[in-house]
Design a protein that fits this description.
It is a single chain. The protein is an alpha/beta fold. It folds into two domains: about 150 residues, NAD(P)-binding Rossmann-like Domain (Rossmann fold), CATH 3.40.50; about 140 residues, N-(1-d-carboxylethyl)-l-norvaline Dehydrogenase, domain 2, CATH 1.10.1040.10. It contains 15 helices and seven strands. A five-stranded mixed beta sheet has the order 3-4-5-6-7, sandwiched between helices. The protein has a two-stranded parallel ribbon with strand order 1-2. The radius of gyration is 19 Å and the shape is globular. Bound molecules: 1,4-dihydronicotinamide adenine dinucleotide (NAI) and 1,3-dihydroxyacetonephosphate (13P). Belongs to the NAD-dependent glycerol-3-phosphate dehydrogenase family. InterPro entries: 6-PGluconate_DH-like_C_sf, 6PGD_dom2, G3P_DH_NAD-dep, G3P_DH_NAD-dep_C, G3P_DH_NAD-dep_N, NAD(P)-bd_dom_sf. It catalyses: sn-glycerol 3-phosphate + NADP(+) = dihydroxyacetone phosphate + NADPH + H(+); sn-glycerol 3-phosphate + NAD(+) = dihydroxyacetone phosphate + NADH + H(+).
């Protein structure tokens, strides 16, 4: 909307959609932000999608499939903003889309982008990656503003791996801090986490340099260095003794790393890639190991060259 487009915003719940249309706020998920008059909120998906040049899918990774199934298919290209891996199928978001809408032009938008800062118009950058050069250009042109700099990318798999893996590594970073293991440990963990992210990217056909870009290193820098990240803050809470159920019950927004941790480990195993840090997070979330024991396990791995 800030870039000068008319936007249809579909919300599932008719009461919430009506409240948002009336108050011009999403009080639950983005309190304190006034919606632009160019955004028309509706609970009718057909109305939201009418004349849309493309569709932004902005629900958590586990809900992409049911949401896509609920939306009428207008033939419009799709830009996915979710960062995760679907449990069960072990698919990345664009793979879920391809299964439901084969051949549809699609892109992924990702980067170090806390929603509340984007909503305030603070400067930020993201990468819009697609195998479809025309979509990359039109969606990049339409979404970019003076303060929101969009880079194009032709490695959508690498971008998706970065977005998904960084959420898991953020939980690990939070756990290390919450357990008082120190900032050296966090830096080591994030760096070796980046190596995991990079290995998986390459094994799935992406490029190692994508891991060093906005969607990989960039997002890791944002979310592993402070409590502003929901995944990192979840890791802190778990390390301080909260159960996963209690930690999830007391928060509003999603922590994508919870569902993605076991899924990304399993997906990596399919292509013969080991993700020790992500696996440690999956075990921590499953309640099978303490933070101290998980760190001990990582430190005890056979020594090798970096
Ligand atoms: N919030 C942020 O700063 C950023 C979030 N993302 C990614 O965007 C995706 C969405 O995240 P958020 O909006 O932050 O999550 P959120 O937890 O704040 O909001 C979730 C949204 O999904 C809807 N939802 C919940 N259950 C649903 C269901 N069963 N079916 C359909 N919709 C459902 C909720 O009504 C809500 O609108 C995630 O993959 C996240 O990693 C990416 C960049 C930044
Ligand atoms: O992906 C994000 C910022 O780029 C949001 O991170 P959290 O979901 O951990 O808050």
């Amino acid at each position: 909307a800030r870039a000068g487009n008319a936007v249809g915003l579909w919300a599932r719940n008719p009461d919430r959609a009506a409240a948002m249309a009336e108050s011009r706020q999403n009080a639950t998920y983005l309190p304190g932000v006034t919606l632009s008059p160019a955004i028309e909120v509706t609970a009718d998906p057909a109305a939201a999608l009418a004349d849309a040049l493309f569709v932004l899918l902005v629900v958590p990774a586990q809900f992409l499939r049911p949401v896509l199934m609920a939306l009428p298919d207008t033939g419009a290209p799709v830009v996915v903003c979710a960062k995760g891996v679907e449990r069960g199928t072990l698919r990345f978001p664009l793979e879920v889309l391809e299964a439901l809408r084969p051949g549809r032009p699609a892109a992924v938008l990702s980067g170090p982008n806390f929603a509340h800062e984007i909503a305030k118009g603070l400067p930020a950058a993201a990468v819009l990656a697609s195998a479809d050069a025309a979509l990359r250009k039109t969606a990049g042109d339409l979404l970019g503003t003076a303060g929101f700099r969009i880079y194009g990318g032709d490695d959508p798999m690498g971008v998706q791996v970065g977005g998904a893996a960084k959420n898991v590594i953020s939980i690990a970073a939070g756990a290390v801090i919450g357990a008082g293991l120190g900032e050296n440990a966090r830096a080591a963990l994030v760096t070796r986490g980046l190596a995991e992210l990079s290995r998986l990217t390459v094994a799935l056909g992406g490029r190692a340099e994508t891991a060093a870009g906005l969607s990989g290193l960039g997002d890791l820098l944002l979310t592993t260095t402070g409590p502003g990240s929901r995944n990192t803050s979840l890791g802190v809470e778990l390390a301080r003794g909260a159960s996963l159920a209690d930690a999830l019950a007391t928060r509003v927004g999603v922590a994508e790393g919870v569902e993605t941790a076991p899924a990304i480990v399993a997906r990596a195993a399919e292509v013969g890639v080991e993700l020790p840090i992500c696996a440690a997070v999956a075990d921590l979330l499953a309640g099978g190991v303490s933070v101290g024991d998980a760190m001990g396990r990582l430190l005890a791995r056979p020594r090798r060259d970096e």
